[in-house]
Amino acid sequence: MSAIECCRTAALGGHVAACTKCSHQHIAYNSCRNRHCPKCQGVASRDWMAARIEDLLPVEYFHAVFTLPAQIADIAFQNKAAVYGLLFKASAETLLTIAADAKHLGARIGLTSVLHTWGSAMTHHPHAHVIVPGGGLSPDGTRWIACRPGFLLPVKVLSRLFRRLFLEGLARLHKAGKLTFFGTLSELADPDIFAAHLAPLRKADWVVYAKPPFGGPEAVLAYLSRYTHRVAVSNHRLISADADTVAFRWKDYRIKRGDRMKVMRLPTSEFIRRFLTHVLPSGFHRIRRAGFLANGIRRDRIEKIRHLIDTKPEPDQTTGEDGRTDADARDPRQTCPKCGGAMIVIETCTRGQTPKSRAPPWEDAV
């Protein structure tokens, strides 16, 4: 919270840039670079996406969403690292296992997972977005096996295996003493009560949603650039804020037709509480890869796959939708907003220091 409060203020230092033509001056304060700050994700998103361009393959891409039931979400909130990590592991293992089954695809696939913990109204709603290329390597690694056009894997089969793998993993975490419980959930520390709590979930339908395939590799980049470094609420959704109330836009997914965008007004303290609900544990990675896209083997596997489908990378692919926000979208070598001249740095400020108004050095020389 302190990082976000200090972001782009004198508390973090900054610099003064002046125009070489008209001497117009602009003060730019430093960013906090915190991964939960709505202002600081544009640059991080662009850098991450630039590294992903060379990983794209000329195949269909599919998007699956694995969502935890509300009863599990409550446990996840008190055990973020353990349960969110299990969500990554169970969803990836589900896709890899079903895809490897000869009855379905019979191939070793790759995937990229992104963790989101919020709904549109900033309530706690942990789920994993998974992007999967439409095919995989044959078991012996000599062929590329493409999926059927427009279809990757059956959702019902994915849902059932995901449910089993996750509940088994959660039970192991409890048995190993890696889960802690507080407040209204404190009684779940008892093994029998915990087992009874999970029993209804073994028969319930778990939400695994498969969206239609993307329009192509460029669409995958556009989507990932919006999702990889997103925070619980972005600045463009904020309408107003004061000491008492914050208003923001949210999407009501219960409305099937018509305008689903609404305005929610919350007491400022409740808005801050909801936002901080989604702060991740220190060092926790919210973007992970598995299969042939796993770190360490990704480059070799992608080169091999391109050889098998006889294509070459297209390094010039770009996307216009890179998730840039506010000042992060500006080129640091920006031009003067008044005359278009070149802006250069004439003064730097350390943390807590306020820049002094002064004439550019070239005017002093004159």
TrEMBL record:
UniProt-recorded Gene Ontology molecular function terms: DNA binding; transposase activity
One Pfam short name: Zn_Tnp_IS91
InterPro entries for this protein: transpos_IS91, Transposase_32, Zn_Tnp
Origin: domain of life: Bacteria
Region (Disordered): 309-337
Transmembrane segments: none
Domain Transposase zinc-binding, residue spans: 1-68
GO terms for biological process, alphabetical: DNA transposition
Compositionally biased region (Basic and acidic residues): 309-333
Domain Transposase IS801/IS1294: residue ranges: 110-297
PANTHER family cross-referenced by the UniProt entry: ISSOD25 TRANSPOSASE TNPA_ISSOD25, TRANSPOSASE
Record protein name field: Transposase zinc-binding domain-containing protein
Organism, scientific name: Roseivivax halotolerans
Lineage: Bacteria, Pseudomonadati, Pseudomonadota, Alphaproteobacteria, Rhodobacterales
